[in-house]
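Dear colleague,

Following up on Tuesday's group meeting, I ran the structure prediction for the two-component complex that the binding team flagged. I've pasted the input sequences exactly as they went in, so you can double-check that nothing got truncated or mislabelled along the way. The structure tokens for the whole assembly follow below. Feel free to forward this to whoever is handling the docking comparison.

Inputs:
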Amino acid sequence: MDKPRHQFLERTIYSREELCGDYFILWIWDEALGEKCQPGQFFEIRAHYSIADAEETRSLPKLFKPISIYDNAEGRIGFFIKKVGTGTNALYKLKAGDLLELIGPLGNGFPFVTGRRILLVSGGIGYPPLWYLQKELIKHNLLYWVHGGSGQNDVFPCDEIWTEDGSFGKKGMVTEGIRKLIAEKKIDLIYSCGPIPMLKECAGITNKLNIEHYCSLEAYMACGIGVCYGCAIPVGYENDWNYLRVCKEGPVFNAGEVLWNKF
Amino acid sequence: MEQILNPLQTSLGRLKMNSPVTVASGTFALENLDFIVQEHLGAYVCKTITRYPKKGNPPPRLYETEAGLLNSIGLQNPGLDKFIAEDLPILRKTLTVPLIVSFSGASLNEFEQMLECLENQEGISGYELNVSCPNVENEGITFGIDPDVVYKLCALLSPLTNRELIVKLTPNVTDIGVITKAAEDGGATAISLINTIWGMAIDYRNGMSMLKKGIGGYSGIGIKPLALALTYRAAQAVKIPVIAMGEFITGRMLWNSFGLEHL
């Protein structure tokens, strides 16, 4: 049989960082794995204990969670995670030295470009994949990064920050400033990641201005490898479209092809 | 290689199986073979196919509850013609264990047409009839909840094939024994159960269902006792083999389902 395309891995957590609000970072170190990763790709990860003690404690085994790659410095791979539910809570409790279960890297990353004027747009937990992306792009392109969050606990280092409650940076939605930035900075390409309403708004603007735009989508996932069709989103044109899998055909899509009104 | 006596070897009708463990339709595809040894499976059941391509349900399609998973995929599949032209040759090439094709029709006639098409194809050891879909000839009422319809369907299809004819039953019925008996009387060679039970989760923040379609199929650890009870009832009602469906993660979980011949 062909070489396996997917591998189930167990790696020791090398260090853990606590950030503001509900955010934290788990680091693993695997040089061979690092070479396979591209910005925009993700791993399915799970806290080892959540399944290992299922039999004894009757605690419930949970699905793997799709987490995008935040950083990859020659094998020092980071997962920047927000605590939102039971799966991510189990990850939150992990310490350095604990085992992390992984499948990946999965999905297709962002297309790599050179000599472009790029705007990065992120919202909330959409920040991490763009961090890894900008590290790769910054030597070859002009970048400007704008990030939005609900409040001061949802903002991270970048060029411009917006918060809904005005507690940090500019007050309002991050998408409010995009039109002006595109004109001012002569932007010809946008990469975005964040909640669906933000991506939809952003895609509406780039579609009108006819600007190339790639977005990374988030979806509830079960398998992460293209089997269950649980993470599908509508992609194509009004009369010719299909549900494509975020895990397999995505998570990065051309924003102009995603049918935002069918969500 | 010398043939080693395999204590797990079993049979399903005329089908010789390496082990009593098969996979549940729709949860397992060739991608999963990266993670397990194929020969440990008794058979491979493909994702349900329909006569014509199906786009599936709008997202979100998945939600993981405290005790199991809700899904509303909506049988997304490429349709029978594409399955025969593209998927089947790959399955034939890759599989070393028997292939069971799961399919579903919108009417008795469509089931018959599909079976006739599949009968002309080599490399198929059996069929699994997915009767958890609406019957367009009968006011859209699910096939699998009406014993008369189940009997008619099996009686229609069983004379047309010498391959195994497994009927996958829905648990959303009043008396599983009656339906199981109807399938046996109609000529089914085995029963598999249970398909998912109806389920729903509500987002407390807005009072909306976590699934776009509202109600989905519920599977997982939370319904294991129910699945076991229904399987027990079904096995008591008939003489043909009954295949139990459910998750097991450890050997003990598997033994907890003892007395059930195929899983």
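Residues 10-56+74-196+222-257 of chain B form a domain with the TIM Barrel fold (CATH 3.20.20.70).

Cheers,
M.
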